[in-house]
Amino acid sequence: MESSLFSKLNEYLEKESKCRELLRECRDFCDSAVRSAAVLVESLHKERDLSSKLQELYESLREVASEFVRLQSNVPLHEYYKYNDLWKSSLSQAVATGCLVYYLDCNQLADLSVLQRILCPKEPTASSVRIELEDYLVGVCNLVSELSRMSVNRVTIGDFEFAVNAAKFSSEVLAGFRLLNFRNDYLRRRFDGMKYDVKKLEEVVYDISIRGLLN
Amino acid sequence: MPIESETSFLKQLSIQSLFEELADEFNQLIDKRERLVKASRDITYQSKKVIYLLHRTSDEDLLAICSKAQLQLENVRQLICRLLLRELSPEDYFKFHPIFTIALQEYTEARLFLSYLSESRAITLDEINAEISQQYESLSENLQEDAFDLFINLISVQDYILGMIDVSGELMRYCINCSSRNEWSKAFHVESFLRQLSAEIKYLASYMSRWNDSLDNKLEAMWTNLQKVENACYQLYIRHMEFHWKEDE
């Protein structure tokens, strides 16, 4: 057995492990940017004037985007998917936040291209960060569950309109999800959970309408 | 009021049509995965058959079996090119890699086993990949430029090393067969080969544990295989001494 065979393999693995280490560091920066955006979102639950916060939220999403841009500059060509498990969860968190901010801003569901513009603003290349279809769908599931929480909290500060709009929006999203053919995986389970979020949203609307709080 | 219902109708349409598009895309993704799973299963099965064939070397002529195995492996390479390479682009190779890595490992295992039996050495990763790219070139007339990088390195370092760990099981079985037939020198050759192999792989494994959960189990299995082989050789030696030292006197 030639030892050159193994030294070559060794060299390759060493290089790969260094690259992974570097990307892990970048990922940690992405993570902390995503977390500070999440903290801001948390403050929205009881904020009386939502539109005043939007500027700040977009700003923090730009922060997230710039960390992802830095991360992608260290991804070797054609090896994006070799490492993307590292930042999968922080990206899907960012997607959920992006969806929420866009919903609050435009009252609409952000599609993939909108999110790509918000989170990965650079011209796409072979190694640039991309939002996978499945991650996007998980992000939308997260959006609906965040909305159900938020609608409860906003009712307690007297914002009934939010609950009504969110319930309508979420039931449309649920109807959209019904068009997809799921496999029996994580996404499927998340979709199964979504109907409970929608139910919650509808109950909130029921509660406020039966008490004549809607006019 | 009419204005509001109108806008809500528009919005309804847009979420609906957005998801109609997504459904198409999603179906395509799932279909592709299914095709890759199927391809992977076919390649694995055919590679396993080659390994079984190679274990029959005791019954028939070694050379005849090896050339038969070589031929069957060429068929496996054709499967790899037709079913796997055609589905992949260099960019999403690693996206789907978890689906077909088992198949590539199994092929590597069969190819390594053959190279051990016919040439008493481990074929290198570059050689294995060169065989596949030759096959690919012979199959397709109009090569795409960007596919070049992919079929040059279809089997990754990870696949190769994991295939190498797996081949220790086949070598162990081969060694036990040899020792039961009293093929002394073959058994001892396997023993020294396997010891060297597992020592080298243990060294490499320090980098690998992070990306593969099944690695620890596999290393454990390799270690047991080595011990089995060492014990078999020990038994062989003891028996030999018992029966032959009197003759030697």
TrEMBL record, chain A:
GO terms for cellular component: cytoplasm; nucleus
Location in or out of the cell: Cytoplasm; Nucleus
CDD domains: Translin
One GO BP annotation of this record: RNA metabolic process
Family annotation (InterPro entries): Translin (IPR033956), Translin_C (IPR016069), Translin_fam (IPR002848), Translin_N (IPR016068), Translin_sf (IPR036081)
Key words of the record: Cytoplasm, DNA-binding, Nucleus, RNA-binding
SUPFAM superfamilies in alphabetical order: Translin (SSF74784)
GO molecular function, one term: single-stranded DNA binding
Major localization listed first in the record, in broad terms: cytoplasm
Record has Membrane as a keyword: no
PANTHER family attached to this UniProt entry: TRANSLIN AND TRANSLIN ASSOCIATED PROTEIN X
Family: Belongs to the translin family.
Name the record gives this protein: Translin
Organism expressing this protein natively: Galdieria partita
UniProtKB/TrEMBL annotation, chain B:
UniProt KW Nucleus keyword: yes
UniProt xrefs under InterPro entries: Translin_C, Translin_fam, Translin_N, Translin_sf
Subcellular location(s) per record: Cytoplasm; Nucleus
Homology family: Belongs to the translin family.
Annotated Pfam families: Translin
Domain of life of the native organism: Eukaryota
GO CC terms, sorted: cytoplasm; nucleus
Phylogenetic classification of the source organism: Eukaryota, Rhodophyta, Bangiophyceae, Galdieriales, Galdieriaceae
Single GO MF descriptor: sequence-specific DNA binding
Location, primary (coarse class): cytoplasm
This protein's name: Translin
Keywords of this entry: Cytoplasm, Nucleus
